[in-house]
């Protein structure tokens, strides 16, 4: 398998990031199957046609059902709004297409499970877009843990702090609407933390959480791009139906304790997706705003030179780094998508499931919903209940 | 009032820190009433005599009951082991002495309340030793919040991370014995976080927590100084009866959300007593390992130069700083005790209650116990229940 | 002008970076003239053919003279080894092609001047590849200075620290050979610092320098990619003919003082291209290893919150940022080339000289050679002497 | 020898720092000879009497000639204004007193040599106050170098950046008057860098420098304390006769290259006394504003975890730390003086010369003057010329 023919549904923030990944792979990862950018699909014909041209897709399409049934497509990449994931994924699996689906996999655990079942029934490959796993510094953390270099893990603490809606006049964009987004900071940001925890520490057994919507009404929106938006200027307001912030504690199956916080109300934090892990032999710290760096500490260092060391994960010893630039020449956000797609394409080539896949999407969703239940019922919830 | 005659009970880690504070005050705070170091008291006659000489006390004593009843003493400074606080404080209050008591005020909320009642009945002044409030950088945080410069507070998150018992061969010192210490990381470290939260954000209304003892048995101890110790070498082990780590979430009365973590198992962290506060107009961050610094962010900064600024709280504009050295010349841990004692002595001079006082000790203890109950009963606990 | 047809000579480290820039521009800067990747040229036919395929060029070529005379090419991009720049540039200018030339413009000031004269005589546009100017954080520094927000400039200090040849067994690659590279750390790294100084502070008037080759002989090389290489294993050694480190001091025309250091012997620094500027109203600091950040200080901040603020230059207020991702989502090394090429293409569209251009290349070279003369003659050298 | 009787001449910024050191030593370094604070001396009787009381000296004196001839004094501590050092030191040595002299030892190299000769002739002990050597983090740097753990040293770069006179309205205090202060940033700040370089890397062989006085006239002063001052309000101005900033390059005898910068015009830097050293096996970085930390890098670390580690020099493995608080509990500026005095007192006890002593003062002064000559004559100057 030298190439994979892709049909992509969605063309906004994530659609752009994915498109760029497809474009860069042949240049920087020439031994990976070449993605062929067959068609991009969206409801707004003019917009999708414009995106097709700008992003480099062969065709623009508006009917995703037609797209998923085409013979000349191997992989369906789903980055449409979250509420559309399930229907598309099940249809595409039914048509025998491999699946790449942005996170969150679905709006509910039940939906996520249906999607996984459909993919398994169809025997197709499936991947879910937890891109932050693919920062080389995160890969290094995984490697250190996997090799036992941090010892037994005692603590995982993570925060995903943003501040783009601190201003109460920021409008009521779709990400603040539960019917489209499913949840707010919890599903958008917390989901990444949960996946990171699962990737690095393992499964959780129980959770207890808390959430809040600090600004309960906002101006109705005009247009939105990325995380920016303008108000409609109409003076009307509507209710925010998702959480502004969600925090929870957990226990992991291996005995570690976890602390999680996702918020869009942390002034000064544009994108502090951060974690720290403490083990019996050492610790690691990561902050996505300095995504090329991992802070690493070893208890076994000589007594007079113990301290967190700042590892710039751009050396040949670091994952993916040899595809890029010399040591010290950093990479950015978009590279996480490139690496993620490399994993997807390699897995197809090697006829194995990519990682993370729909199983991971389901398990992440189970934790998300366990936290939501914990909040609703104000109690500890076992993940096993879900 | 130009001087305050002090009798101090306790002569180890805290006794040394307090003694040094008394010694430094006349030199650096000449307008503060001069503490007269009358007598230091402890059970081990030889050790307390040695301490008296080394620390500069006029006399050494072994009978605290006699000490608290002396006519030539105005203030009793209690930094004996925590299980002795209550009895001493009540007796000293009964003898009409003003009280300075190290934290934790007592081993239980009931005891703390008794102590407060005794002090109030006796009409004496009382202070509790939450020294971290007195770092100039923390005072700056308080000032910014008090002046409304951070706006409405949304988040408080704090960790007190240490690593001195990560090694499972570290011996079973008194701080790991519930009968003496009351609790482990929670009461020792978490208490400081709770006080900081109350100082900066206000009262909490409900909590839910989790704790763990990772290493359940340890070698019996030899001797201990500060946080260092040696094993007895006997090969025997005993049970650790306190928590190694305690985490909890809370809601504050003003609507803010809080996250707390105290642990002695965070490899690489010697003394990360840290907090971050996010408000509608700005944020602050503090880490005691860089205690002279406060990170400050304002949402109102010009759009192109928004960012956390590192304020070195050594300028004339910062609390206590003019007593010390020129800007940029930092101070250390011990200075928090000096400032704390300045507050105590000034309050006596001004005939007002020092802050923080036994009320703060009681309210801190209430949160500590609410968290413990939450852990024991695995549920959210209202502070009002306590 | 909607497109620019490019012929590129060179296909290694810089050739890859430039190719990627051409590929990304239509996607992220759709309003910039579209670069058409006509032909890539190099001496090794197989290698250049492979590069053409991998990087996305329409054709591979081996004869640069033929390439520069083609009618269907508008812009010649020269990133061949430095010793070939002059001949190519002059020929291409003679053929009426616009020029993009990697730094250093030439191996000598005389050559650089000849190239500039040729370009001016031909009336073509010319640009030189000082890519670091195009980091958004650097652009912010420029903007702050240009708007007078730092006041009168007193100090510029800059270091470009690398460590890839600290190991004395690292082989004698072409960058260590004066006949090909012209100079060592000075021309390779110092040139970037000089350009940055000129960009941010202005022209220098006099310099005094010092240099050293710490490891005077090295194993003969095998192959090299980027900054990595392997020894030939033959056991033979050859002389290092360039500087390992060069430092110099300067005065600027505006009265500021400058300090420069370029070295490949700073263990622990992979790519510390850093500067700090102090003015009467404020200061800025930059380190390329954290290229998305600019540290900014203003003397006019309120007395209690003065401090360097860490500005993450990913907000809409920052140059180029709106073409990329939401705030806090960082970019990397390669983006400096994309922005640089955007400037080149826009200048062609607007029929103006790009900045920086061959004038800047000449002026940078004049400083480089003044420093070399200062070292050779062990004295202060006026830039005007050159 | 269990005690050392001290007479101190000077009672301002340094007098206070030294007094505090004498007060703290018996408490924290009980095995060091106890300093007996016999008499403090200054010209203003009222002020010195006030200082005696506040700082804890037995007597106040106004005639230093009488003081240095008293029989009941062992050590004369000279921290009077720099222009008075020589006369006092020579007289005190003549009277057989041991000497502690603040830096700069003298205003000229010739004077410094006379002072050294006088001390040697008299056979007394002599120390010079380069207090920054005594930060535990600096001691760690020295230890790593001494043990060969950084290998061969290639680079030393240091800056002492302050900003207290950036405001052109800051008055013309004595530190800006050449007749009293000898020089400006160079002698005040640069001297510390030179001593640090000598302590860590060794002797220099040649230098070339540059200096500037950016603000050439200032308002006549009112009063000054520490580094703060107020203008007289008279509207009159006077000439600044010292350098605002001095930079120089050097070669060390061991082949290393050095870069030095001292300035009072670096906005945002209150006290950035910093250095970095790069060796063949590793590097260290220090910044006095974070004086408890040393950044340490080793080339021999495993390939995937190379990076500067932040060592908090508060562990038992670090110099002086066991006298203070548990790991992670930092110390401040004043502690450098305490450690310095411990060295002085121990040397007296052990009947050896303290380090650094007048030899170091002389050698530092030789470099200072070589730089001044280099500036005056605009050429490289050999230290051997001096």
Automatic annotation (TrEMBL), chains A, B, C, D:
PANTHER family for the chain: BCDNA.GH03377
Residues of the Gfo/Idh/MocA-like oxidoreductase N-terminal domain: 4-130
GO MF entries: nucleotide binding; oxidoreductase activity
Protein name, per record: Gfo/Idh/MocA family oxidoreductase
Keywords, ordered alphabetically: Oxidoreductase
Domain GFO/IDH/MocA-like oxidoreductase: 138-284
Superkingdom of origin organism: Bacteria
Keyword Oxidoreductase listed: yes
Keyword Ribosomal protein found: no
């Amino acid at each position: 398998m030298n190439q994979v023919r892709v049909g992509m549904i969605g063309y906004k923030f994530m659609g752009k990031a994915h498109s760029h990944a497809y474009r860069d792979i042949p240049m920087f990862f020439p031994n990976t199957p070449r993605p062929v950018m067959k068609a991009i699909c969206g409801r707004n014909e003019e917009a999708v046609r414009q995106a097709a041209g700008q992003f480099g897709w062969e065709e623009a399409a508006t009917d995703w059902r037609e797209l998923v049934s085409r013979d000349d497509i191997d992989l369906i990449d789903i980055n449409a709004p979250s509420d559309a994931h399930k229907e598309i994924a099940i249809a595409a699996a039914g048509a025998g297409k491999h699946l790449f689906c942005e996170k969150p996999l679905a709006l509910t655990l039940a939906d996520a499970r249906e999607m996984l079942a459909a993919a398994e029934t169809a025997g197709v490959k499936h991947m879910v877009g937890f891109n932050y796993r693919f920062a080389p510094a995160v890969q290094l953390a995984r490697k250190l843990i996997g090799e036992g270099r941090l010892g037994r893990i005692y603590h995982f603490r993570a925060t995903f702090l943003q501040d783009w809606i601190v201003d109460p006049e920021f409008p009521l964009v779709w990400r603040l609407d539960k019917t489209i987004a499913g949840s707010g900071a919890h599903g958008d940001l917390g989901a990444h933390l949960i996946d990171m925890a699962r990737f690095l520490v393992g499964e959780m057994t129980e959770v207890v959480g808390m959430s809040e919507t600090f600004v309960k009404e906002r101006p109705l929106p005009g247009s939105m791009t990325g995380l920016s938006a303008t108000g409609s200027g109409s003076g009307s307001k509507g209710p925010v139906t998702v959480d502004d912030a969600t925090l929870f504690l957990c226990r992991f199956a291996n005995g570690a304790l976890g602390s999680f916080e996702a918020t869009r109300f942390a002034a000064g934090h544009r994108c502090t997706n951060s974690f720290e892990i403490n083990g019996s032999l050492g610790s690691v710290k990561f902050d996505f705003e300095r995504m090329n760096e991992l802070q690493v500490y070893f208890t076994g260092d000589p007594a007079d030179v113990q301290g967190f060391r700042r590892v710039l994960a751009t050396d040949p010893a670091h994952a993916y780094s040899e595809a890029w630039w010399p040591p010290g020449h950093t990479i950015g956000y978009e590279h996480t998508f490139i690496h993620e797609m490399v994993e997807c394409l390699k897995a197809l080539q090697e006829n194995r499931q990519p990682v993370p896949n729909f199983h991971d999407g389901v398990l992440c969703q189970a934790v998300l919903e366990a936290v939501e239940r914990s909040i609703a019922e104000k109690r500890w919830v076992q993940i096993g209940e879900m």
